[in-house]
Amino acid sequence: MSSSLTPKRIPPPNLLRRLINPKPFCSQSRSSRAPDYPARDSNSTGKPLHESASPKRPVNSTLSDSVPYPSTSKYGGDIMNEARVIDALLGHRSDPRSALRYYNWVEPWGGFDQDGDVLWVLVHILLGCRETFAPARDLIIRYLSNYSIPKPSVAVNRIVYCAEKFGFELNSRAFNYLLNGYIRARRVDDAVDCLNLMLERKAIPFVTYMNSLFSALLRRNSMDEARELYHKMVTLGVTGDNFTTQLFMRASLREGKPEEAAEIFGDAKSRGVEPDGLMYSLAIQAACKKPDLSMAFGLLREMREKMNVPSQETYTSVITASVTEGNLEEALRLKDEMVSCGIPMNVIAATSLIKGHCKNDDLVSALDLFREMKEKGPSPNKVTFSVLIEWCCRKENMEKALELYEEMKLVSIPPSCFHVHSMIRGYLKAQTPEKALTIFDESVESGVANTFICNSILSWLCKQGKINEAINLVRMMESKGIEPNAVSYNNMILAHCKVKDMEKARIIFSKMLEKGLKPNNVTYSILIDGYSKNGDIQNAFDVLHEMDSSSVTPNEVVFSSFIDGVCKAGKTSDARDALQKFISELNFGPSCRTYNSIIDGFVKEGNLDSALATYREMCDNGVFPTAVTYTSLINGCFKSSKMDLALKMTKEMEDRGIKRDIPVYGALIDGFCKMRDMEKASALFSELLELGLCPSVTVYNSLISGYRDVGNIDAGLDLYKKMMNDGIHCHLPTYTTLIDGCLKERKLDIALDLYSKMIEEGIKPDFIMYTALVSGLCKNGQLVNAQEILEEMEKKGKIPNVNIYNALIAEHRSEGNLNKAFALHDEMLDKGVTPDGHTYDVLIGRKAGGGVDSHNNL
Fold this sequence. Notes:
single chain; 0% strand; 858 residues; Serine Threonine Protein Phosphatase 5, Tetratricopeptide repeat; mainly alpha
């Protein structure tokens, strides 16, 4: 069917006479636009012309029987007079369809859409009848698409002007159709201006057009502009429909403003809007993202009570949010509810639940759900495998991780860099680097390896001191087009700093600059720490100044690295002087950590007075001490045999509201143990347990050493049993102390059992342990066993120290075996072990039968 707007073929003159007023104007100017319009006849707003008996002649015009069609052909130079066309249209005011037919006939010669009032007169006529609303709308759409689009202010003023001039009632549809035309022409800014002009005139916009405009604004991310328009409309009482609310809720969620989306939903409900399913779903999404699980659960219940079952997407949102917030129990309940409603679980919900089980340290349930997915659906995706592989690696279950890794490849999911990194990190954590390197090599061959993956291997190589391998890896990266980044170079610099090769560390730093990589605070802190620990204070200072000149502002970590490194190099006074310089010249505000390094440095150097002076300075500068501060000071007090001062510091700590933690208790217990006051040490240990604190291995070691020193190794063995029962693994120092104590108290069998257990646990003896064993066995007359220990050391390539030789020489001397004693002396010299005064005292018999108090060396 042809459109009513399509220009018709020119009808014959006799037909035209029946369509238009038989007595039109004929004396008007033939210009394209008359300066003024003649008065209309009285019938122009009344009945159809054919019902009028004798229409009145317009003012200042003459009647003519001529027909008002173009005086020349379409290809001639003249066109029809606009005033005559308007008069003809007004003559058909009560017959909009006739007016439209006339307009379609005359428009090709007049060009009346471009300028003037012809179009708008016709629009007003068409809007006078419901049946011709659509042609009016289409006229405006064609007008705004075919011609140079006028500004909204011009078009709106023309509509108003025509209505006032020709006596039409102003219909808001004219404005709405104009608004629709701008939207259809994709002139969004003009549409916004049009809507603003409408609102100024209190013209109510149609909700459909309003939503179309809001959609266009939101598509171009003009949320603020859309929001402003909406608020203007609300003041006129136009609030839109559910689709309007959904538009703004979606936009708020897209902008990451779930609170705003929830507020929009709440405002709509307060206005009496009955939310539909989509509104509820969006509101639940907003609640989940806030997050406000209580609100999400309430909305879900309300949605179920008022309408059909929530969608799979809605349930998934709440399940995922519940898992994220650590409420796995509720997530599982929602999953069961969803399935009972006939909604299958999707892969997103299933993967979220698997992650929830993993976060709850329940890898078994996670794997059970994974098996259920494979059997019943949905099929696991890349994210599902990622979660399980990551958590298997975290739990060092590398066998299962590898199984999942291979299974993923079998179902045509290629491993990503994330999976590779998880596997490498897991194998390195499980102390199986060869398998990590295998995975790495595969990733390089497949092209998956990136800088992130390479850095994980590079970091491990550097920590292991495998500098040559690390250098080769960097070369391989460059050959494969994998550019090393700042992290890569930082690792290389750190590796050279650890082996105290600062020259090469500096060369790597220079290469980093050549590559155009900008050093950061981490880079500079590594260099500063390296120079400081090497006692090279000047170069450390130079790096600080270089850092300042390169526009990298030193942070607290950099300054603290410098201070800590100098302190660990045994130059705490220099560190304190440097701190004053940082404060005065670089406006550095030291933290508690910085002061703690200096205090601990002075304590380790035995300079308690300077440590206390630094503590007072710290307090005077408004830096509050922590438990770490007091732990160092308490250790220093005991080290200086100032028990009263240690207790005073403990009280001061408690007065500041700082509770005793394990390190503080450890410092107090160790202090009393060293003072051989086991009663107070034991009381503190009981207090620690009553508070529900878990003693560390260090605390146990202090107590066991204390009991050994007072000759009560049985109490030490009881503590050892408690450690085992509590699942606390003993370290080498624990076994060394226990074995030394047992040998001193002639508990040879227990000592040897402990040594065997230690070896079974994979703990390797060091020189202190060997010294305790040899010395103890010799004193117990176990010269053969002691000699076996010596042979064991030699097999492991360990050269016995002077104390071990002294113990063996003393025992052979006491048994009268001088030849063996002197042979051991010669063996010492051959192996480069220098005898001390005790060696010669034993050999010449001044201290025959003597030995070494091994615990003095523990």
